[in-house]
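Archive entry. Fields below.
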Amino acid sequence: MADFEPRIVAFLCNWCTYTAADLAGTSRLQYPPNVRVIRLMCTGALDPVYVSKALLEGADGVLIGGCHPGDCHYQSGNYKARRRIAILHTILAQLGFDPQRVWLRWISASEGQRFADTVTEMVEHLRRLGPNPMRELPMS
Amino acid sequence: MPLSARDEHLERVDVAVIGAGIAGLQAAFLLTSLGRRVALLDTAPWIGGSFHLLDRTFPTDSCGLCFMEAGLSPTFCPTLESARNPLLSIYPLTQVTAVEGQAGDFRLTLRQLPRYVDPARCTACGECLAVCPVSGPSSDEGALAPRQAIYRPPWRAVPRAFVIDPTLCTHCGACVEACPEGAVELDMPAQTLALRAGAVITAPGFEPFPAERKGEYGFGVLDNVVTSLQFERMISFSGSTRGRLVRPSDGRPARRLAFISCVGSRDVSVGRPYCSSICCMITAKQAAIARELDAQASCTVFYIDLRAQGRDDEYYMARRLNAPGIRYVRCQVSTIKQSQRTRDVIIEYWDEAGQRQEESFDLAVLAVGFGPPAEAAALAQALGIERNELGFARTSALRPAESSRPGVFAAGAFREPKDIVHSVVEAGAAAALAATLTPAAPLAAEEPPPLRPGLEDEPPRLGIFLGEAGRQYAALLEDLERRLRRLRGVARVERIPSLASPAGRDALLQRASEAGLNRLVIVDAPLRFAPAAEANLGQVLRGLGLPDSAVELVDMDAWPPAGCDVPARSVNGLWDSVRMAAAGLLRRPLTPRPAITVSPTPPAAEALDAVVMGGGPAGISAALAMAELGLRVLLVEQAPQLGGHLREFAGALDGEEPAEWLAERIQRMEQAGVRVRTHTAVIRSSRQPDDSYLLELASPEGQEQVQAGALVIAAGSLPAQPSSFSYGQDPRVMTQDELARRLGAGEDPGDVVMIQCVESRTAERPYCSRTCCAQALRHALRIKEAWPARQVVILYRDLRAFGHYELDYLAARRAGVRFIRYEPHQPPQVHAPTAGRLEVEVVDALLGRPIRLPADSLVLSVGAVPAALPHWLQELGVPVHADGFLIPEHPKMRPLSLGRPGIFACGAVLGPCFAEEAVLQGQAAAAHAAAYLAERTRRRAAVESIAFVNERLCSGCELCVRACPFEARVMNVERHVAEVRAAFCAGCGTCAMVCPNGASQQRLFETPAVLQVIDAALDSLWEAPLPEEKPC
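PREDICTED_STRUCTURE:
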């Protein structure tokens, strides 16, 4: 398991966390390269189907990043995301899937370091959890 | 004097804005929304001012500076928006040396210092950093981080080009050789420029107090003493310690933190007699964030008075006072020392019981005050404006945005230190007044370019273009290109010069058109926020007849960073990013971006542009400013006459009688064509399908209907009616307003005791009314002036004489007014015998024992309560706080907007405020309303991620209508399907998410495309492991 490299799919809101990730990159901050970023305009537009799809396809973790509470550029999208992810966590747990593979974090546009820290932390966490059990399933 | 003919050829703008900080940017945005051309000048090498220092602000404890209003759609950082704004020209490193002419036609002489790097050629690649041998302390990080002689501006600075600090540069020439673009010019000269402008707004900001002048606090000598500005950068994730609390002496965690208030404020000994107004709040925020960053941190705040004046600030402070791990100690710190062994900071102070105390801490943070900027004197001289005795721009209470020279306006901390929200408001006021001096040009219509015919029938043809953006990407590109050649479904893979250059633009256009491509992935250096690249891309798309949805940009610097030591890691990330972009593009329909006009039909001749509700100083200022901007305005006031609370005011304000001001404004309103209805109430209002408002007015003469595009709520507040201290039973007990009336009539009040915070800052009425302390001081001074023998005692909790009101506090103490502090749990008691004098008994918090004060008059500072708001406001969705005041859309950056299209508020309806603030808010609300109306009637492109509906799939369930936060969704009742009102769609995609049938979709983010991208993100997982990928 030592050389297990977790693969994270990140859904980031255009205004805050995507910009923070951009900042982390352009600032040459060092963080593990295990994340693949998908931009959304708002976490409120994140369909839980996307998260499920990523997990079914074998992602070891899904990171959802949005604006801090009160800072949503669309008034309340991050609150909507928070509710949806809470429900998704419950559903994942019921299915016997560790909900701690799905992280929701608030990272503002200036918090490049926080984005890098979050990815680092998540990679370590996922290393401990091991690969997504879905990967064990035979793929068609 | 008219300007001479030699100036005819000069660049002419409508308004020159001096200082590109928060106030300057806000003013510039509003002016460009009103169709004015603006020159934005700053002495720094980039625009943004103190923006770049700030990370998180009270009262939200989050960043949110990007919420500054700049049109109708959501914004990125204001600095980046201004780089894209075609009506805005930016002059960095520029000082104003002379201003000739007069309002309407000024000629500005400018001196632009050299940057030593040509912004047109610098690609911010950083090769020069690798070779620059000199380094010194970074001024942006408060010297806590090093900076080289050539350096990269803060992130999101505009221009982005590197800068050379001439004080550090040794002219060794290493960077000149290293620069691949030849952008460094060590002999770049300073330039003298000139500019013509109709009006000038000056907002050069502030300068922090040099803390080393308070020698007893040891700043600059002791290792672990920092200023609040340095600490601000430490707690910022982009700052010197990247959000980690460490001791500068040894880098060990700083857990025991001390905050010392009023360093260089309220201090006559260092020539800073005034209060800097915001340091108490900054400290409260910093303590809270420190606790958030490190749950084990303990914060001790040493303070004199807690100045959290106003509603939001008081609520915020109350939360902090009771937060775990934060301790407030009322005292004045006498000295700070340091332990030679541990380097701990030792703070010595006298506590309230008069005991000498010593405590040790890891880090001491000095809450430094703020003064006028270093260039204030020279700037004021160049502008020909007066400064007050404190060094700030001289303005007056009832003409607060106007400097002493007509046509020159002042805003922000240049008037005196203040919070962001007040700077934002003042900038709005200055913008409104400056705009009236310059003619409006109609805003240019934005037409999406036409698409090439038959595009929808073309099969996808994808090209991937690799921009050669610099040597540092060369190896990466080579590797990537090799891999891309194997990718299936790609028509072309080509190298081109970077799209940031005209050569890149021409190459892309030529090759894409040769190959008949209709989908483009462009891999390049960061192009987001690079205005030149954005313009080039726009030209390419126009040339190809493709919509913006045909392109995906992949940033070589993004994730994982290309600058990483392990290039293989970068190329894997880049390879995936390119595949993801390509996968999404191939599934994306090429729909054009629609153009919209919100008000396609011109409103009827008798219709109104705006209705102002409330005829106090705020409402009058709003109505007059809008009318002078050419809008048709109706002012409605319930009372029989205009003036509101200003009519109660006794005596002159900064030398001007409120009654005279009122008469002048009423006359000007008449000239400007404002229709005024007194004795009239708006009893009903409804939003019309064209987003105007239909109002029903009721007056003794009858009822009437009017229609308007915008509403400005200026309903004001009412003085609270106290129920304690025998008020209403004893004529000797009165409120401050009643005292004002008696003083106005020349009545001698005898010996006076004033009680502050009566029924204010309590559980029932938890907010601070902001104005009462200053009002009490004013009245006390008036009494002492007229009857020097009279005793005046003020009983207070925190004397909130912020800003220049501190000078009144100082004067009152000098005049013999006594100040006694009481604790809220030991309120004063009043004995009011029918015979004999009143007697007030109070426990002096400092002495800890009761004192009896005889008095002839007892004056209660009761604060303000909100006026009754009409029920229809809430029906329109305007949010009202539990305390009865309106809630603005964003407490810092959008203080006058109410989150509903076309509805604005100003004055005390948003919380108690001074007359001066009401005037500023009124004028600012006018600018916002006018900008809203101008944008609303302009043909413009819809947001690029606009929602749309596939009507065949829509079941009419209305989930999207309920989910949309912007009222951009309506039901089409005839067809029973949902529709998108393009003008209001902000492009968030919430509606697409809630749609159960996939009928609602979001442009650029169509569900099938996103699913394809997710697939692509994980594809390589099944191909092979990524052995060379290891974290650096």
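CURATOR_NOTE: The longest strand of chain B covers residues 191-202.
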